[in-house]
């Protein structure tokens, strides 16, 4: 594999490993051996260590003294904790879009993402569906104009992506439910109905949590 700019080498290694974790190729609690990664990717051990620190910050690996790096576990406590926090972050972003939009044109990026989500659902393309689910958040960043909120969401996004991918891989029919919730969210944003935005996004995250927990039981 060949890595190129603009991302730093460690960021590219982190992205490569993150994708493998999100898709389940690297299993929960599995050890990530620096030497094996170094040899497989033909990169320096220092770059791999830096990449693992990035993944630790993004809650995909845990690094323990004398035990090395391991993929974080998927368990009920972790899933519920993450979904509860992400719910509040989503609500902040949703409210920012509702309060900050000046015309219907401001919603065009979200409508385009909605179309892509529909197409991914029809193709049963889990990877594209998960990626575009988070494209919604990134389209909302300019309305919030809050670098701390953006950094927090970006650091948590890989762990949430992993949850979604895991759940949808086992229960692809759930995509339709997420599409319906997203349509309800857009309607609430257009109406600048912040209580409704909270209600829809809370339901969305609660449903996401239940889907992941249900998949954990059947795995």
TrEMBL record:
UniProt-listed Pfam families: FCD, GntR
Keywords of this entry: DNA-binding, Transcription, Transcription regulation
All residue ranges annotated as the HTH gntR-type domain in the record: 7-74
Recorded superkingdom: Bacteria
InterPro entries tied to this protein: GntR_C (IPR011711), TF_FadR/GntR_C (IPR008920), Tscrpt_reg_HTH_GntR (IPR000524), WH-like_DNA-bd_sf (IPR036388), WH_DNA-bd_sf (IPR036390)
Name of the molecule in the record: GntR family transcriptional regulator
Taxonomic source organism: Pseudomonas fontis
């Amino acid at each position: 594999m060949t890595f190129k700019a603009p991302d730093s080498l460690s960021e590219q290694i982190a992205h490569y490993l993150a994708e493998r974790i999100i898709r389940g190729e690297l299993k929960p609690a599995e050890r990530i051996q620096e030497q094996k990664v170094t040899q497989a990717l033909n990169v320096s051990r220092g770059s791999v260590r830096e990449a693992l620190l990035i993944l630790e910050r993004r809650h995909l690996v845990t690094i323990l003294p004398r035990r090395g790096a391991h993929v974080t576990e998927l368990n009920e406590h972790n899933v519920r904790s993450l979904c509860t926090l992400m719910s509040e972050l989503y609500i902040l972003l949703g409210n920012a879009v509702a309060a900050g939009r000046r015309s219907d044109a401001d919603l065009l990026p979200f409508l385009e993402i909605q179309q892509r989500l529909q197409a991914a659902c029809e193709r049963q393309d889990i990877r594209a569906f998960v990626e575009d689910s988070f494209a919604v958040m990134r389209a909302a960043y300019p309305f919030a104009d809050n670098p701390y909120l953006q950094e927090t969401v970006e650091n948590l996004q890989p762990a949430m992506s992993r949850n979604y991918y895991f759940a949808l891989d086992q229960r692809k029919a759930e995509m339709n439910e997420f599409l319906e919730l997203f349509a309800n969210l857009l309607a609430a944003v257009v109406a600048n109905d912040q209580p409704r935005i909270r209600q829809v996004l809370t339901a969305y995250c609660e449903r996401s949590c239940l889907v992941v927990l249900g998949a954990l039981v059947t795995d």
